[in-house]
Amino acid sequence: ALELIDFKNALEQFHNLVEKMIQKTKERSGLYTKDDDEIDYVKFYRTIRALFGPAVKDQNVQAFFRKVMSKPDERPEWPEIFGCFTGGSVGMSSPSKESMVLLVSEKQQITHSVVKRKDVIKGIVKVPLLHFTVTASQKGVLTVFSKKRKSFFSYSFYFHQAPTWINGCDFLPNLKYVVAVTESTVILWDYKSKETQSDGFVIKPMKNCMLCVCTVTMADDLAKDTILMGDDRGYVYLLTITSDDFIMKQSKAGKESQFKALDSESFDIPKRKLHDDWVGKIRYFSALKCFGSCSTDSINSFILDDIKRLEDHLPVKEFSVPKGVNAFTYCGKAKVIVTGG
């Protein structure tokens, strides 16, 4: 508690110092002359050292000082003084030192390019049990990064048949498929197939625009996978897929490349309107046995309840936040849910 109080006091003094620097920089003119309150680099450096000690590095202090002096209107965030937004981890102090205020773990950069120019990553999902990460790009590149022998291998597949952008992805742990949603389809990609012979299934058409997707993990779901989806009209969908569906529900229309079409009308997909605006994010928390969904809707901003509520239409636990909620997460250790609007 004492360390926390000391840090808050140091941070307050740091903010006051930066505000004074910004004010003095803006006051500068042809008639301005230096006075005793002028803050040069030496004074700034000594003050920072006195406040935070060895937790800051010289190069970060220099970079912060230059940024404040050259662009006083762009106020840098305080974590920058600790190098949180700078790349690399060379010369990192030992995490065991008590003087460390913020601990930054060593990172590994993936230099393999999986998306082309003017494309962006729309979803990143970590699969701890299989030691890999799944990504989906807006223009249809699905990639699995598998960590083997301390290096990354990528298996990319470009979904040429996607008529619209991919909006999100997740992994089906039982069926071993990557699931992704576009504005009008649900993609099930068999990542185990060779890159030149990628195959899977496409569930279409979806009447509304699908914006997000997540997997529901339950102990008794050994032969099937359940996913949750949110659309642009505030609906949340519950879709259960089994391996039998891949055989029984193939469309007679034939193939689209290696991907087989599945008629969405042949699936029982319960849905319920929970928000009055777009569903921005959806997630299932196994520890709580509940799903969460959020929206920019100011009335029904965040929903947290059992997935059975999508079928029985009983009242749901909902929370209102002005201007809605854009993101949320659950911390099991602290037993709290944090939302960001």
Automatic annotation (TrEMBL):
InterPro entries tied to this protein: WD-EF-hand_domain, WD40/YVTN_repeat-like_dom_sf, WD40_repeat_dom_sf
Superkingdom classification of source: Eukaryota
Coiled-coil segments: none
Signal peptide boundaries: none
Matches recorded under SUPFAM superfamilies: WD40 repeat-like
Record keywords, A-Z: Repeat
Name of this chain's protein: WDR64 protein
Gene name as annotated: Wdr64_0
